[in-house]
Design a protein that fits this description.
Elements lengths: L8 H6 L4 H11 L7 E4 L2 E5 L2 H7 L7 H13 L3 E6 L2 E6 L38 H7 L9 H16 L10 H11 L4 H12 L8 H4 L2 H4 L2 H10 L8 H4 L1
Antiparallel strand pairs: 1-2, 2-4, 3-4
Helix pairs in contact: 2-4, 3-4, 6-8, 8-11
């Protein structure tokens, strides 16, 4: 079962999603970070088992048939494409769906319509309420020197320090590079390093792929930066709770 789900309220409203569909789509959106994939006509499709979805999203339904109806509804909204391969359901995220992770504050500063992991900004941008947009205002100058090579070096050092595991990544994937560029427009190198610690220090890592390649991390830099700053290392559960 998932411990957290992240919903972009702006996009959910814009696309006409109710809470059930937004809840499921947030799960679909994370499939590239951990699910088995196949390439069909130059497009990536990710294995999205209805039974696993039922197990991961218990608030939605306990019936695979009902879950599949939600799948088809998201497909009818042009957010995903679904293919049956040897009796298994595979999901492809459409170009429209990739707007789900649009950067908060990219259209207008201090707007109530810009979501963050922690919620909306206060109107006064108080120092007591640090958010994505506040970081953006102060840290867009010095990151021209923070290269992809530097990032991968930092990623490797952090993995080795906290997980005792080596890293063999020579280059970011295209979608990872795009998210890296977005992150460097908002965060300094030091803040991204702190965000890495916010991920690697989590007591529970739901899927090994969350820390194998940086895709999952680069889509959630703000989340893990805030986790590090607030020392919130139980976002996916506690080791003590599992004992």
């Amino acid at each position: 079962m998932r411990y957290n789900s992240y919903i972009n309220n702006v996009k959910a409203t814009e696309w006409g999603l109710n809470i059930q569909l937004a809840y499921l789509f947030s799960w679909f959106y994370e499939l590239p970070s951990w699910a088995e994939s196949v390439i069909i006509e130059n497009e990536s499709y990710y294995f999205a088992s209805k039974n696993k979805a039922v197990k991961e999203l218990p608030l939605l339904t306990d019936k695979p048939d009902t879950m599949y109806r939600y799948y088809k509804k998201l497909e009818s909204l042009n957010l995903v494409n679904i293919k049956k391969i040897e009796g298994k359901d595979y999901v492809n995220l459409t170009s429209k769906s990739k707007e789900w992770n649009s950067i908060p504050g990219s259209q207008s500063d201090n707007s109530e319509n810009n979501p963050t992991v922690l919620g909306n900004e206060s109107e006064n941008n108080s120092d007591l309420n640090p958010t994505y947009n506040i970081i953006n205002k102060h840290n867009t100058i010095n990151n021209n020197l923070y290269s992809e090579k530097d990032f991968l070096e930092d990623w490797g050092k952090c993995r080795k320090a906290y997980l005792k595991l080596p890293t063999h990544i020579a280059k970011l994937e295209i979608f990872e590079a795009l998210n890296f560029k977005k992150a460097t427009n908002i965060f300094t190198r030091e803040q991204i390093q702190s965000a890495m610690k916010g991920l690697f220090l989590q007591e529970i890592i739901s899927f090994s792929s969350m820390t194998t390649k940086p895709n999952h991390f680069l889509e959630r830099v703000e989340q893990y930066y805030m986790a590090y700053e607030s020392k919130d290392f139980k976002q996916y559960g506690s080791k003590k709770a599992q004992e």
